[in-house]
Specification:
Order of helices and strands: EEHHEHHEHEHEEEEEHEHHHHEEHEHEEE
Low-confidence stretches: none
Structural class: alpha+beta
Shape: globular
Helix content: 25-40%
Bound molecules: 3-hydroxy-3-methylglutaryl-coenzyme A
Mean pLDDT: 98
Number of strands: 17
Largest sheet: 9 strands, mixed
Strand content: 25-35%
């Protein structure tokens, strides 16, 4: 039985900062950001969008009434969740109107958690083939104003429906994974911003890619010739490109580089969305590329701390007919922030004293948003 991605969609908030504006403000050469890091813009969330609303906004665009009845597993992968105890997946389950006979949990392993969620969902569907599993990766990436990581921020969510006989991509039963206890990027409970050892994190990302890619090839007997595209977790697009160059040569496999370009389309303009970045890259490739049905795609997932995984999938007949059609419209409709507006938005925060805060939601056009916080409880628009 084939199991894999039946539907996939993403959401990113309605504001962005252009890298040219960031470069001017930080006295940097814009080429460092656009060429050196390979990023053009980054999404910026207003205070009314958190990991829960972004997740629900991503999922609502792909789910039918039939899906809401068939889903019995909801997994939120996030590292910027809103609560230490209650899983954001329970709120998402409510906002979306999923039937109550479902499991709902939140998983964490930096940018890797959604991949673990997908693999767990695959096993769940193998045992329960008439059911469906909703996996959502949702994150806000923040390193602080004027920090080294500032140009690699972003915000957004990707929702993925895992089912038997998938219409977009079936997942191969092969995966190679690798864990090592390292501190390349982490966020202690008391900090709003992640700490990062930037260059060390780049090295570790590539070490984990090499380990999982080689292990996968040894285990499966496949070679690069068996792949039509390689996709990567994309904290910034240049790192994916450098990693592709570790295993492929542009002269012998120009198609892999061309497909990699397609696979960076939304990432270049949304920025790092942590758990969802690999899947935003997959959406970019499926929408903007022209891969034939039957093409095999390699996926490298990396979450600092760290866990890496290389796995693969094969595109189904007619997969393009089942992609969400309005992602480009959503991106085109975003508003450009001045550096002052970006910094002001950055510094707005929710109250923490249990009093009542009513948010200005007049700018909101998304189906789901945070409207108030009262007695330490978030109140969402449904
Ligand atoms: P930096 O020190 O600001 O930049 O840090 P740099 O000096 O390394 O320069 C970056 C690139 O720009 C270099 O290219 C320069 O040569 C080039 P490279 O040599 O690497 O090919 N450059 C220029 N190019 C053209 N024109 C110019 C110019 N100037 C320089 N004028 C760093 C960059 C990514 C480290 C920083 O932004 C950072 O710390 N970001 C956050 C951490 C990160 O993204 N790490 C990635 C791996 S870890 C990961 O992926 C996990 C993560 O997603 C978290 C999770 O798992 O939850 C982060």
């Amino acid at each position: 039985m084939k199991i894999g991605i039946d539907k996939i969609g993403f959401y990113s908030p309605g504001y962005f900062l252009d890298m040219a504006d960031l470069a001017t403000a930080r006295n940097a050469d814009v080429n460092k950001y656009t060429i050196g890091l390979g990023q053009d813009r980054m999404a910026m969330p207003p205070i009314t969008q958190d990991t829960i609303t972004m997740a629900a906004n991503a999922a609502v665009g792909i789910l039918s009434e039939e899906d809401l009845e068939a889903i019995d597993l909801v997994i939120l992968g996030t590292e910027s969740g809103t609560d230490q105890s209650k899983a954001g997946a329970t709120a998402i389950h409510h906002l979306l109107g999923i039937n109550p006979y479902a499991r709902a949990i939140e998983m964490k392993q930096a940018c890797y958690a959604a991949t673990a969620g997908i693999q767990l969902a695959k096993g769940h569907i193998a045992l329960n083939p008439t059911k469906k599993a909703l996996i959502i990766a949702s994150d806000i990436s923040k390193y602080g104003l004027n920090s080294g990581g500032e140009p690699t921020q972003g915000a957004g969510a990707v929702a993925i429906l895992i089912a038997a006989n998938p219409r977009i991509m079936s997942l191969d039963n092969d995966a190679a994974y690798f864990t090592d206890d390292i501190l390349d990027f982490w966020r202690p409970n008391y900090s709003d911003y992640a700490f990062v050892d930037g260059q060390y994190s780049n090295e570790q990302y590539q070490r984990f890619f090499e380990a999982t890619f080689n292990r996968y090839m040894e285990d499966t007997g496949r070679t690069l010739d068996d792949f039509n595209a390689l996709t990567f977790h994309i904290p910034y697009t240049k790192l994916g490109l450098k990693s592709l160059r570790m295993v492929a040569d542009i002269d012998t496999r120009p198609d892999l580089f061309e497909n990699f370009n397609h696979a960076t389309y939304y990432n270049r303009t949304v920025g790092n969305i942590y758990t969802g970045s690999l899947y935003l890259s997959l959406i970019s490739l499926l929408e903007k590329g022209s891969l034939a049905a039957g093409s095999r795609i390699g996926l490298f997932s990396y979450g600092s701390g760290a866990v890496g995984e290389f796995f693969s999938g094969v595109l189904e007949d007619g997969y393009k007919d089942h992609l969400v059609s309005d992602h480009q419209t959503m991106i085109d409709a975003r508003k450009r922030l001045s550096i002052h507006a970006y910094e002001a938005m950055y510094n707005v925060s929710l109250i923490k004293d249990g009093s009542h805060q009513i948010l200005d939601t007049t700018h909101e056009t998304s189906p789901f948003y945070l409207k108030e916080i009262k007695h330490h409880k978030r109140v969402y628009n449904k």
